[in-house]
Amino acid sequence: MLESSKDSAKLDAMKRIVGMIAKGKNASELFPAVVKNVASKNIEIKKLVYVYLMRYAEEQQDLALLSISTFQRALKDPNQLIRASALRVLSSIRVPIIVPIMMLAIKEASSDLSPYVRKNAAHAIQKLYSLDPEQKEMLIEVIEKLLKDRSTLVAGSVVMAFEEVCPDRIDLIHKNYRKLCNLLVDVEEWGQVVIIHMLTRYARTQFVSPWKTDDDVVEEYNENNFYESDGEQKEKDRNVKKTYTMDPDHRLLLRNTKPLLQSRNAAVVMAVAQLYWHLAPKSEAGIVSKSLVRLLRSNREVQYIVLQNIATMSIQRKGMFEPYLKSFYVRSTDPTMIKTLKLEILTNLANEANISTLLREFQTYVKSQDKQFAAATIQAIGRCATNITEVTDTCLNGLVCLLSNRDETVVAESVVVIKKLLQTQPAHHGEIIKHMAKLLDNITVPVARASILWLIGEYCERVPKIAPDVLRKTAKSFTNEDDLVKLQILNLGAKLYLTNSKQTKLLTQYVLNLGKYDQSYDIRDRTRFIRQLIVPNEKSGALSKYAKKIFLAQKPAPLLESPFKDRDHFQLGTLSHTLNSRATGYLELSDWPDVAPDPAVRNVEVAESAKEWTAILGKTKKEKPTEKFYSESEEEEDESASTGATESESGSESEKEDKEEGSSDESSGSSSSSEESSDSESDSKESTAKKTSGAVKESNAEESKKKAKGISKNRNTSSSSDTESSSSEGSSSDSKSVSDSRSDSDSGKSGSATSSKVTTQVFVPTKTHEMLHRMTGKGLSAHYHFSRQPDMFGDHMVPVQVTVTNTTDQKIENIHIGEKKLPLGMRIHEFNPIECLEPGGSVTVSMGIDFCDSTQTASFQLCTKDDHFNVNIQPPVGELLLPVTMSEKDFKKEQGMLTGMNETSATIAVAPQNSTSLVIIEKVVKAANLGVVPSGQDNIHRFAAKTVHSGSLMLVTVELKESSTAQLIINTEKTVIGSVLLRELKPVLSQG
Amino acid sequence: MLMRCGPGCHCPSPSPSNLIPKRVTSKESCQATDGKHRQSQKMIHSLFLINCSGDIFLEKHWKSVVSQSVCDYFFEAQEKAIDVENVPPVISTPHHYLISIYRDKIFFVSVIQTEVPPLFVIEFLHRVADTFQDYFGECSETAIKDNVVIVYELLEEMLDNGFPLATESNILKELIKPPTILRSVVNSITGSSNVGDTLPTGQLSNIPWRRAGVKYTNNEAYFDVIEEIDAIIDKSGSTVFAEIQGVIDSCIKLSGMPDLSLSFMNPRLLDDVSFHPCIRFKRWESERVLSFIPPDGNFRLISYRVSSQNLVAIPVYVKHMISFKENSSSGRFDVTIGPKQNMGKTVEGVVMTVHMPKAVLNMNLTATQGSYTFDPVTKVLTWDVGKITPQKLPNLKGIVNLQSGAPKPEENPSLNIQFKIQQLAISGLKVNRLDMYGEKYKPFKGVKYITKAGKFQVRT
């Protein structure tokens, strides 16, 4: 039929073959006939052939090669679905000869326009790796490239590939860490699971422990530290408590995973739960319990896994699940494995407060028809009794009642548990022992009989009358007993012989004789051993003197522990944890590092932490001639031909800045930074040249958007093609991040070369504000301006650059921030004190202020060595924003959600010179820190930003109408800021 | 000293790892020694579908082939577990791990080779079962056998190299069209296929759950608020534990790309909520409004738990008198069900099931309303009551015959009750309004409330 010319006949045949495969029958002899159809036009036949190929290609390698060319052709198909599926099949054919072809295909696909194809490329990486591990290095390169991908579709798959191929190359994650955190919510659910697990491991290596502030494990350890006095230790602890602040990236991860607790996918919820368990400060981990309890409503299998994990958690931190105690109550319809797990958790959660309710609940369980479960309940009662001393007696009485139960397993289990309990506090339980001795006649379960005998032997002095009698009885039945019981009879005999030899000497001898000829060698051994030890004869050595001590020594009580006690060394939610044994490929979760590795490695491009910033400030770079800076920026202007206006703007701006800062060699923040990055510029130029000469392959919109966004984050690009100016303006960056920013910015450029729509324009406002006048400041003057650099001091801070100038003829020493008078919630990240300012010199320092999204003034004191001045900083509303890049579609979507109350609008007259789009964009962006949204229409301009503190979206639309009017619309949740912004933007557009 | 912790030293019950069977089948071992496929085999390796009688009726491999003999370990565990419910979901074998689920009398057994979050696999297997259900109307052995090709195509799309690829039913339906009688007729005539040839738009967009270009002549949006009461009532009739769990199931048939927002009169009631991925979490956090672009067709919008502070109104009460006489082979059984706090609505669809103790041989009962059955094999008594009318309370009463000679059962069985109340959400949750943005037409909107018994158990 496969030879038939009709598609329908072929299809029918293929369906039958697939049916055979599904049943596990061998269909390999049809291989040649099937392979011929790989080029079929009919897509269903094609798919079925693919199915067949994947199954049998490995067995028929030579013939499989026939099909390869078809796939190679399909890889170039304009239909992305076909490209993707060709890649899938090609990579699924496990034929080693085609490894190079696969490698090539993966490389090509990894830069495909379609994210779907790129996703498949990520999948293919794993397949190729399992086929030929020697390709590892090359594959890592591809992974590195795909990790940079911003598509949510790709993220999950590439992290999966990363986990498989090179889970130890944590360095590849650094740069993508923040991006992954931010994308996480939008990634499909399976990807989320993988990413969360990976990030958990990552975070464990990169951040310091947040648990130091908590007082369990760590402090316990400290107490054992004998060489330091307690007082010191406490002091130290307190210090740790004070100094620990969570790395913002650590916080970012926790914050971004939290919404996923609401996922409908149990695996995602569990992944987040384990992330919080392993990473969050103990006080925060509690939020996961609610969601975990919710999972208990789903299928049996999910319940099983979740309960296991809760069991482990509840041992260490009871408090987490205590409020949900009742959710773990057992129903008679639950399967046994679920019941026992629930019981386990209930036992873990038991404390003084809830024990009475729990015991009542347990009483119901004991009567359960499920005997296995009833037995487990008795053990649980035993554990509660040992853990909570208040109820020990109650439990014991309850258990004794159970001894009269009809069911043997229940009785046996009770005996065993009672034995353990009595051992923990043998004080005055003669009565119970007597009662149990009576029971001996009826109980047949060996474990229980043995337990009773042992008890009587151990406490034979307390029941002097009964013990010999018991021995007599058991001696009679000795031959019929289980081995376990026999051993205990021997023990009992020995103990009695030692304490009460008058009555029992003969009996013991008798028992020992029986034991001597027993079938089991264990018992013969034991008999011999005991005889030597206790029966005095001439040969017996020194040991027999101590026989009593040996046999009747105080025995430590057994600890009744949860079987889940030792599971916590496995990462929660993993297969290893479920099995309680290392599964293949389990990756150990590392301990927290004592000192966090440099957080700067995660900085993408120029984003910088404050510390390094000041460090660079410290190292004044006098050698660098300023001319070079100018020449650089001129070159730059030449290069970027298209946008003269904005370009010169930024150039002149930096000049101005320089002038303000004076010509002195004092390292001013911006100049040092621009020097730094001008290095990077020349490099980036080179690569740009290369790039433009070469084929600009990956210039799809997606890509360029991503790059543009990356840049806009780091601030000011004046327009699409002068990305360099961004890096020249950029805050200083260590060499690593510069090199990265370079590669990113040039691909950004290549993107914009083809699609100039996607641009982001951000400005550094040139306007400086006076903070302290020279007269009031007794010769010290200070100006500030908003530098618009995000990520400087954490997410909520608005960065401010303060230029301090000394106009006196003496040195001014120790300039720092003194007393702060801030409205509620506002915070200031101070600049590092300036030790000394030479006469006539000036220094620029940067500080961060969290304005809490309000335009209230931040007042503080600017202090010198011997004076202090009250100063204020009031932010223009435009500076409370961070630009956001989004597509027009997203913009409209978001806008659609922010209507009604959240919308403010106004109609304004626009000055004629302001009607071109370039000018409008420039003006608006200058007035407020907004990101430009690419617009399809010429007369509508859209800008997007989010507020610095709360991250609420701020969407600005300028729609030009006829007769030089314009509609200005602002959509935001923060209506107050929205209306203020509207008020501020109005004059910007109406004035010339 | 040798008896440190005495004879009764009770080892903790054997952990699953101890269950590893000793024997290794020859085929299995050569699989694993195959050098080419060393450690790196992540996620789901193979899937076997096994019916209740232990036949493997479908197998699918995403990587190299794993022999069927691996399932022997599963059968072994199944034997040990006695009850299907008690088969451990995770089984460890010398070279593989088996993770299984039991759905609709079929075991879905997946073969794993390395560390993977078990829930990941379990959740995926359930998703597979859901998809079958969705495609064939039922997830049964016959349905799967009849549609083996579609099943294969589906599995191929859902999993690539063991990693989930497309699991949204909307996307799958675009890739592989579900079978209908009409389509199979058309296909056989025109020769067209069940397989889509373009990439579903959903796969690429940020909203993978919705396909583009949906068109309806009647635009409708229905929401069913279904609440279930989980409760344990003790002997004396007092509530040991009660909780309300709810879901909102939606059926949305709207054209284009509608953007809906659903608000509640009393959103504070919702304590713990899990969302369909389409819901915008931020909006919920800030305004307690469900804002979403819905998938097309039927789906579960949210599931929620009502905060536990609120007292749960229990709509029925049960009066029971079950006793077994000492030393005689009979017992008495008398159960009455009555309505309570039902807010003026009738309680209907009442069914009581009781797992009687093993010693029970037969039951001789009379019901004043409805009918009862007793299965002497499984010892399950089912009483289908129907509607409860307060005037005449339904009662079931009679004699229980016990095995002669057997000891009297110690515990009375617990009664599982099911019921339904239409037009009532027991928590008092009310939908306030539904708004639609993004499309011009006016949709028809409807909300329905139902309260049901969830795991409702009365201990006697």
TrEMBL record, chain B:
A GO term, aspect molecular function: small GTPase binding
Signal peptide boundaries: none
GO biological process terms held by the UniProt record: anterograde synaptic vesicle transport; intracellular protein transport; postsynaptic neurotransmitter receptor internalization
GO cellular component, one term: Golgi apparatus
Entry's localization field: Golgi apparatus; Cytoplasmic vesicle membrane
InterPro entries given in the database record: Adaptor_comp_med_subunit, AP2_Mu_C_sf, AP_mu_sigma_su, Clathrin_mu, Clathrin_mu_CS, Longin-like_dom_sf, MHD
Main localization category: Golgi
Membrane topology: Peripheral membrane protein
Keywords of the record: Cytoplasmic vesicle, Golgi apparatus, Membrane, Protein transport, Transport
UniProt KW Lyase keyword: no
Cross-referenced CDD domains: AP3_Mu_N (cd14837)
Role: Part of the AP-3 complex, an adaptor-related complex which is not clathrin-associated. The complex is associated with the Golgi region as well as more peripheral structures. It facilitates the budding of vesicles from the Golgi membrane and may be directly involved in trafficking to lysosomes.
Protein's UniProt name: AP-3 complex subunit mu-1
Organism the protein comes from: Anser brachyrhynchus
